[in-house]
Amino acid sequence: MSRAEKVAVPKTELPQNVAIYAHGLDFTYNPKSPFAKQALCNVDVTIEKGEFVAIVGHTGSGKTTFVQHLNALIRVQKGELTVLGHDLSVRKPDLKALRRQVGMVFQYPEYQLFADTVLDDVCFGLKNFGIEKDKREQMARDALELVGLDFDSVKAKSPFDLSGGEKRRVALAGVLAMKPQILVMDEPTAGLDPRGKEEILSLVSQLNREENITVIMVSHDMNEVFENAKRVLVFRDGRLDYDLPPRELFRKEEEIASMNLEVPSMAMFLNELERSGFAIEDDCLTVEEVFQAVLRLKEARDA
Ligand SMILES: Nc1ncnc2c1ncn2[C@@H]1O[C@H](COP(=O)(O)OP(=O)(O)OP(=O)(O)O)[C@@H](O)[C@H]1O
Ligand SMILES: [Mg+2]
Fold this sequence. Notes:
The protein is an alpha/beta fold. The chain folds into two domains: about 10-265, Rossmann fold (3-Layer(aba) Sandwich), CATH 3.40.50; about 265-303, no CATH class. It is about 40% helix and about 20% strand. The protein contains twelve helices and ten strands. The chain has a six-stranded mixed beta sheet, sandwiched between helices. Helix 3 crosses helix 4. Bound molecules: adenosine-5'-triphosphate and magnesium ion (MG). Adenosine-5'-triphosphate binds near residues 37, 60, 61, 62 and 64. Magnesium ion (MG) binds near residues 63, 64, 107 and 186.
């Protein structure tokens, strides 16, 4: 089915494997003022633990507004939202527990960094949760090394003296140090060079595969969405318009173009192959996977 499915599940019956459940979620900035702007409209979505979900859509379509609900940076105005069992539509959700479990890397990571040193920045959340000094330094070291930074050479630096890519890694380390169950990233690779992008994405994919961390990634880069996400949510004017696996979504070349989104180059190639009568399995998305699939077709033809 092409349109995002709308199935209402009463909150009390949410199965254990549900990470995020939104039903009828609406949000308006500056309500009841002449500047009122509805940014989310009747969003229904259920995401299971361990999924890797990309969120795409034209600028201003509501992506950031939606993901900022997930750790209650934006509070629910209307509708239902449950994240890891926390009902966020109540007046006083347990924000401390929620924010430990849901790590958020902001759209502009430089806004996320504020301490005098990288070490203090990465340790900030751990300190808030009462983890003692030696233990938190060890956890900060592990997290910084996980994101590819050398602990001893960056720990005493000011986060503001780092490059854009390094800042992003420090922001990610601060979040990963908390060992979140859900990792929400708002355009984590924007402005990075291809190698920086690749390193962040392969780390996040690895965390998703090996640690079963649920990943929610907002992105404008359809190629990275195609290669990494297993499911893509498309927002348009605050509505969730499509909720599909990447291969299925990017077969809809005309609809994608009408939303001012790009069709990933690999999807274009696969669509072209398909139109010429070569059927490639839907789970082949990377160059290597498609190459192997083409080889299999060749072997079958030669046999
Ligand atoms: N703080 C705010 N006050 C008023 N309106 C806002 C605010 N933040 C966002 N909006 C408006 O809400 C709508 C959704 O914005 P949002 O930031 O969620 O979009 P987005 O999909 O993340 O866009 P982008 O791709 O540019 O990051 C837009 O029309 C935007 O102008
Ligand atoms: Mg945004």
